[in-house]
Amino acid sequence: MKMQLAAAGLLCLLLANGTHAAAARSPGSRAISGLYDRHGASANAARVNALRQRTVQHDFSDESSEDKRIRRQRAEAIKSGFLYAWSGYKQYAYGADELDVVNKRPRTTRNGWGATLVDALDTLWILGLEDEFHEARNMVAKIDFHNDGGQLAKVFETNIRYVGGLLAAHELSGDRMFLQKAVELTDLLMPAFNTPLGLPWQMLNITTGVGSSESPGGSSTNLAEIGTFQMEFFRLSQLTRNATYHEAAQNVITTMLARNPLQAPGGNYTIPGMYPTDFDMLAGKFTSSAAYWGGGGDSFYEYLAKTWYLSDFMLHRNLDLWNESIQSLAKYGVATSTSGLLFPGFLDGSKFYPYADTFTNFIPGTLALASKLVGSDSYFSLAEDLLEAGYSVFGEMPTSLGAEAIRFVRKNVPTDYQLLSSTAQAQVDKYGFVLSRPYYMLRPELIESLFYMYRLTGKTIYADRAWAIWQGIQRNCRIANGYVGTADVSVDASDTGIHNIVDSTESFFYAETFLYLYLIFADQDTISLDDWVFTTEAHPLSRANAFDGTF
């Protein structure tokens, strides 16, 4: 780590830099108490005003004409790749959730409502594909969300892919049909919150309104799946003037904190802001002490920072919780590898495990954005360090693609290496880490963080790294009619002449991977970070909606 991070210093900085002129309260609007005026109304208004005047995106006025030419050429190449994938989807699975690329047939994985179609709406719009967007719009208008396709709805995924996609399409195009469909679907999801504590079930029978856990007969869930509704539900409450959605999302955090006091006797919550991932939604209790910013925890932390940003800097509780979590992540949740790189890891109580999945690659981008907003150089430095480590997992591979998960060896912890098998030790010697799960599934998280770093700093190294990843996708994941995962990132298809594939093309490939790649190379005022906030599924929500703490 480049410098020690002073928790008290950052907190003082946050309180000094804060808040925007309050919009007039609409007749009949509803104030949400207890979450906003943490530090006094007049002082708070000054802080919010100061934050609302702040810009974070690099102005790119120093870009050379040659750099601009190359960048735009690359944007067109990404767009061409998207159209190639989209044409395969249209030909063999249009309106379906996913395309089985190898077998050229549709897959129903998200209730048959057209997950790829809805998830990709904003990508179609931003890439300027007007005909494709309007054709998709007409398909979306016909979706019957009451027909669940014979599947239980996964509530978390339905929210981030469908509700988020519909909201972004509405905000970009101004078409109220998308908003109406978002409300229709969210209202069908709300019975998942009709539980003793208001915590949502993982799964929901849309027809009966009966919820359940993915574990049959149980009530287990995870931190990400209960805590990734804040952005979509906040914006939905804003647009409908109905506080119900926002209250449901915020109640999750209120209840989680109230029923899991820090260091309570017999409790699993022991480190401030490092919330265990395993959760019982009926009891409202953490069921293990394992805390992780990767799969199972990732988007909970992401939404703490981004909902604060989306709320016009008024949702102060989210900022307080984010600040506390980042302090503990920096102190307890990262470690330097024998290669000198700073990786996030897995905490179980006080024990650190040097393991990181690809989902942790969201951290540098979100942390960099938040650091720019509050003016923290030390936390931006932490984001840079984490991005270097995350990129090394891609950059060390001949494919330029990163493994789904790696294990690293900590500096000055020789047992990390000694306990590995000889095969794993050989990988550490060669790459600096072990390929715990060696496949790449077209995931966007590292590309996302490269996008943020490029837009925030203007440094072309981040764009060049994204281009290298795109070329790796082209070599190893492009097959007839679309793109698929690759089974082993340590073997490049151009060396073997064989595509060692994983036949999976989820909707996030269109919604996130393609979108972030394109935005890195598009003109920089396209979805500026000063004007838009991205959900965890890369759906941009506008900052043009002023907020005064009421709905």
Tags for this model:
551 residues; mainly alpha; Glycosyltransferase; three-stranded antiparallel β-sheet; 21 helices; 22 strands; 48% helix; disordered N terminus
Short description:
By secondary structure, the protein is mostly helical.
Describe this structure in words.
By secondary structure, this protein is mostly helical. It has a single domain (7-11, 54-542), classed as Glycosyltransferase, CATH 1.50.10. It is 48% helix and 11% strand. The strands form 9 sheets. Strands 3-4-5 form a 3-stranded antiparallel β-sheet. Strand 7 (278-280) and strand 8 form a beta hairpin. The relative contact order is 0.14. One of its GO terms (cellular component) is endoplasmic reticulum.
Average pLDDT: 93
The major beta sheet can be summarized as:
3 strands, antiparallel
Rg computed from alpha carbons, rounded to a whole number of angstroms: 22 Å
Coarse shape: globular
CATH architecture call = Alpha/alpha barrel
Residue fraction in strands? 5-15%
Helix proportion: 40-55%
